[in-house]
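A quick aside before the break. I want you to see a complete sequence-to-structure record at least once, exactly as it would be stored in a machine-readable document. Don't worry about memorizing anything.
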Amino acid sequence: MNEANAIYQPAVRKRVWARWLGQVGAPLLLGAGIYALRPVQPWFWAVTGAGERWGLGFFSRLQALGTSLPDWMLYNLPDALWLFACLSMIQGVWGFRWGREALAWGSLLVIGAMGSEALQAAGILEGTGDWGDVVGYGGAVVLMYWAFNLSTTRLYAYMFSS
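That is the input. The structure line, written in tokens, reads:
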């Protein structure tokens, strides 16, 4: 089977969707879930009061659980997860390969994320300028590299084996 037609095979398509859900959807949902554990209410809950109105009164209990977690997990991990998900999405757009275009867009994303933290630390941008985020971003890049090499080897071995 040639590479151009491989994506049209149902088994390959299922694996590609599973990879998208695992590398993009899961980190985004996990990061959003961790945000719900933060001790400060998100603006949507505070402005609309939707948490109580829609029967989601457990929000205060979630925040109590969040106080028992370390700060890096509440504040740095979601950003690293989102960077990992965005890098995975960029990689997926280019067929799960790091060609010239995907590498350029991925590099811009990483430079932008790390640059925004540096500008926050310098007081140019509003924010905390947390260096824990920079460490998390580095971890996301390393994890993306590892996930790309591991899964690409397995996926292409499956797609092109006879």
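Two observations worth writing down. The chain has a mean pLDDT of 77. The helical segments are 3-6, 10-36, 43-48, 50-53, 59-66, 71-93, 100-121, 131-159. We'll return to this after the break.
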